[in-house]
Amino acid sequence: MSLIIAVDGPAASGKGTIAARLARTYGLPHLDTGLLYRAVGVKLLEAGRSLDDEAAATEAARSLDVAGLSDDPRLTTGEAGEAASRVAGHPGVRAALLDLQQAFAAQAVGAVLDGRDIGTVIAPDAPAKLFVTATPEVRATRRWRQLTARGFDIGFEEMLADIQRRDARDAGRGAAPMVQAEDAVLLDTTDMDIEAAFDAARRIVETARAKHGL
Asked: Which reaction does it catalyse (predicted)?
């Protein structure tokens, strides 16, 4: 059995930072699956297509070039995040990206993936599963600080409303909704800084490794 670490959770919970650090710690490849959906959303927006056009979104997903996604500044905006949440609700988009994500998770060396449905759909047999969360207010504060530091003009109340809207959409969609896997360990980072959150996550992974003899 390979060490596959599934890190799920809502926006701005800290899951991406935690997943990246876990990958470095264990020497594993890392995939931020949210970037895939952000890239699909941005492709539609730049083509002038509606985010509600499932056929166009599915075609964009099928033709997606994943090279360089982690370095694309277009994918870090609030607009890209909102677009990702909307196109992720299309069953066709999720189906188009499923094989890519599962192939990444199936690498012999193991892998770390973060997203909304890693532990429930993409890698349900992953030996280490975390569901990272925090209160909407704390998550909105984190994202607001992140975006304003980059020069984006957005108010906190607008950011909070966006977080709450995305939570409702991600949890309520019919296709692979965001839910905590039954065997995932809940990690609430509301009162944690990143060092404390990472340490807690690492201990969760170490417990899973011991359990599975990895």
From this structure: CMP + ATP = CDP + ADP; dCMP + ATP = dCDP + ADP
Is residue 13 marked as binding? yes
Q: Is 11 annotated as a binding residue?
A: yes
- The verdict on whether residue 55 carries a ligand-binding annotation is no
Which residues partner with 128 through β-bridges? 5
**Tens digit of each residue's pLDDT (9 = 90 or more) over 165-204:** 988 888 887 777 889 999 999 999 999 999 999 999 999 9
First-to-last alpha carbon distance for the chain, in angstroms, is 7
Does residue 68 register a pLDDT over 90?
Answer: no
Tell me whether residue 15 is annotated as binding: yes
Rg, the chain, Cα only = 16
| pLDDT (tens digit per residue) in 29-58 | 999 998 999 999 999 999 999 999 999 999
Residue 188 belongs to what H/E stretch?
A: strand 185-188
Binding residue per annotation — 119?
A: no
Is 89 annotated as ligand-binding? no
| pTM reported for the whole predicted model | 0.88
Q: Where are the alpha helices (DSSP H) in 47-175?
A: 54-62, 78-87, 91-105, 136-149, 156-172
| Other C-beta atoms lying within 10 Å of the C-beta of residue 172 | 10
